[in-house]
Amino acid sequence: MCIADISQYIDTSVSVTMSWRRNNTVLTNGSDFTISPPVMTNNQYTGVLRINSLRDELDNGASYNCSVSVTPNTPFIIAGNDNSSAVTLTVARFDINHVDISINIPSVPVSGDVFNLSCVIVGPPNFVENLTSVRWTYYLQGSQDVASENNDATLVPVVRNGNIFTSVLTLDPVKTTDARQYYCQVAISVFSYIDRNNRDLTVQIPPPSVSVFPNPPTGPIYESTSYLLTCTATVNTTIVDTPVTASVVWSDPSGNVIPTNDTRRQVIPPTGSSLVSMLLFQPIDTGLNNDGGTYTCQMIINSGNSLIASSQPTNTTLPVTVESLPPMTVDFSSVGSFELGQSLTITCTIKTVERLVVTPLITFFKITKTDIEMLSNLNRPYSITTDDTGSVTNYTLILDPVRFEDAGMYTCMAEFNVTGFNNTNDPSTATYDYQEASGVFTLNVTCKLN
After folding, report:
1. SS (HEC) of 356-391
2. Among 228, 248, 360, 449, which is least packed, fewest CB within 10 Å?
3. What domains does the chain contain, in order, with CATH numbers?
4. What value does the mean pLDDT take over residues 135-139?
């Protein structure tokens, strides 16, 4: 800026001209310089020279001269007058320290969200170049931009605010595969210079969907039976790269965490890439253990990638009602004839509830007036079968033909004893579920006379 005081000519009509020189070279308007027309204010003549782009090789040490010439409009009234002033510039060479580049990641995004990464470029004051050539790449020498490699990435045009330039990369949605290193590269063309910065992006796995299913799925849950709860976590594989792993915490109705070394309530954690955990009761109980109530399964999804954060925990619950064990039954049935020489099949059927944790001890024997004989000593064909559920057992004796010595009282006895410890595994507080039952079948052999 050049200011000339012409107050001494206030009463005289004069013409004032102003010119600019750099090292005695007259300057004109153009791409390198902008010369604003002088303005008269309060007897001060003010002109502005704008150097559109300082260059150290031209401007460092250069002398800029402002010359002002005053010429009277009426000759010979006063003499003309010329004056000038000069300033010498010191211009530092542009280097990396004059531009600051930072990548702003305000938080750890959750996979599935819309997320913006901002590259903020701060130039020196009065920086003339408009930094529109900003690239986002995954690698320093990346040949392709992020937006070219990732269909979910969008690059927003650079926004300038003074000497601050902002480039925004939008990930919609962000995925766990986006957890990686990002480069923001800025080309400063006027200096044929590229500056850059890089930063890692951490992405968090979203909370999984968690469900608990009982086995058996329906019907009453009896004490002294095995009972299984299966907890399954599900992740959205479109935004979560698999395989992933899961960690689980099971809590009982009192809110206590069930330890993995509990012998009666076995926690089976997820293994490998399986997202399934099980809680197995061996057995479930209504006694001192009081297993009835609401159980909670908590799942967290993890990744082996240091840039992928584990999910927030997800809880789900399931109420469990335990009923007392119904009595075991023992019943006899027969097919055929009691007559001598005919065929007769005698069956003893023992029924318990399904999934009873112990197998009943069953004894089948024959009582006569003089002896007691076990089934295996009767020297007659027999079979022992159990149905698919394990709750129905049949002892079958085949008498073919029926003989006089087959007469007698056939007895079937069954018993079982279930021992379940409480949560402290203290045998002195053990609870027992004991049952016994029996049945009798009397065979009187008849003889039919023709």
Report:
1. ECCCCEEEEEEECCCCEEEHHHCCCCEEEEECCCCC
2. 449
3. 2-88 (2.60.40), 96-204 (2.60.40.10), 209-323 (2.60.40.10), 329-443 (2.60.40.10)
4. 91
